[in-house]
Amino acid sequence: MPDTAHNETIASAVSAPHSLDPSSSRLYSHASAPKASHKVDNEDGIELTELPQAETLSSKDPGPSVDAESASASAGASVVPEKGAYKMLANIQFFALCWTLFLAGWNDGTTGPLLSRIQSVYNVGYTIVSLIFISNCVGFVVGSVSNIWFTDKLGFGKTIVLGSVTQVVAYCLQAPAPPFPLFVIAYCLNGFGIALQDAQANGYVASYKDNGAAKMGMLHAVYGAGALAAPLVATQFAQLHHWSFHYLTSLGVALSNAVILAAVFRFKRQEECLAQIGEGASEQGASDDSKYRQIFRLKELHLLAFFAFVYVGIEVTLGGWIVTYAKEVRGGGESSGYISAGFFGGLMLGRVTLSWLNKAVGERLVIFLYVLLAIGLELVIWLVPSLIGGAVAVSIVGLLLGPVYPIVMNEAGRILPRWLLTGCIGWIAGFGQTGSAVLPFMTGAIAGKSGIKSLQPLLVGMMGLLVVLWAMIPRGHSRAD
């Protein structure tokens, strides 16, 4: 039947299947190039035109073929997991850096509750026991200066692991309660290790282009969590015969930190690690000067570093000596160590809960607000003879001072050249940690002559200096790239 033959010819032309090219994984039709139509004669002598089978028909078809739809779905599926993998790896990296800051906070929160016990065990006064702060300071300064060299020669991954291993060695020395000189030297090693890790962690997070300010706040909130947890444990060990076994707890945290850093960052350079999470590479400087020369030419860097020096000094002095102050001036007992935990707990909460206020007021103005309120509370602690009232006020001071350090790091990220950022932040953090030794040592030396009651006037004066220094730092609305 002529109609039947005619229909079959057209049907065969229309139904020419599409298939997947096994060699190129691209879709193609059986007639990938359009065929010229030609005439054929059937048995009835009727002229028929053979239709092109491939792209001519498919191009007229408004709907996608089944294979095209599946290929599109496959392409979409490959994009989503890639973004998900970026996010998961970024979270793992951020957790590793947070654990590093937890250990730094743990270390700073340990000293206060153990200070009186260290004095009694080694039979030393305020001035001599303050040498542990000086030793810590020396380690921080050496670590901060050498951090720039280590970052260039070894890279981010190796430098941060080196810092973590140095801390492990320090806690191994402290755990058996060695002679006082060796105990002091261990603080130097500890400071060196923390300086390297602190610089690398802060520089890494400051390089984030996506939500960096919030992550910086979270990073330092975890520092506050470590500083909160340590006094809760150290206060218990301070009352035991084997008081130095507290450093075995610190050793466990330090070992886990070293393992996590090595496993997550795999000794790679910062650019490689950032590329793994979809962050672009940092800008490179055009100058041929050495990094040391470029860094130390920056006036803004030195203002930020000196601000950090005073701030960290206040933070560690208050957290470290407030326990002794509560015992000797306010008549507190052995449980006074928990006041230090209250201060660092407030520090942690401030970094977590006050970010909305930082945005509402503006990070520059809000620091003036926080510091002025903290000065008012310090006057309450100084002038009102109440142990409980003083403990509550100390916690609120921690709450107010908490956001200050992350804001300083954010400001550094806005002002300083990005290609020098890790080295600059290393210097800011290290010089700041110098304050954690100098101010507590000054407090101990003054207390040796005038008594620990001199703590509050010193803190009020240092907080007043913070206001002046912050007014001198330029606004971070532009970057010196």
UniProtKB/TrEMBL annotation:
Look up and give the organism this protein is from.
Dentipellis fragilis
Q: What InterPro entries would the database entry show?
A: MFS, MFS_dom, MFS_trans_sf, MFS_Transporter
Source organism, top-level taxon: Eukaryota
Asked if Transmembrane helix is a keyword of the record, the answer is yes
Parts of the chain that traverse the membrane: 88-106, 126-150, 218-238, 244-265, 301-323, 335-354, 366-384, 390-408, 420-442, 454-473
Chief localisation class: membrane
Q: What family is it from?
A: Belongs to the major facilitator superfamily.
Q: Which UniProt keywords apply?
A: Membrane, Transmembrane, Transmembrane helix, Transport
Question: For the Major facilitator superfamily (MFS) profile domain, which residue ranges apply?
Answer: 93-479
Q: Where is the stretch described as Disordered?
A: 1-46, 53-72
Source organism phylogeny: Eukaryota, Fungi, Dikarya, Basidiomycota, Agaricomycotina
The membrane topology of this protein is:
Multi-pass membrane protein
* Gene Ontology CC, one term: membrane
**Where is this chain's protein located in or outside the cell?**
Endomembrane system
Protein's UniProt name:
Major facilitator superfamily (MFS) profile domain-containing protein
User: In the UniProt record, does the keyword Transport occur?
Assistant: yes
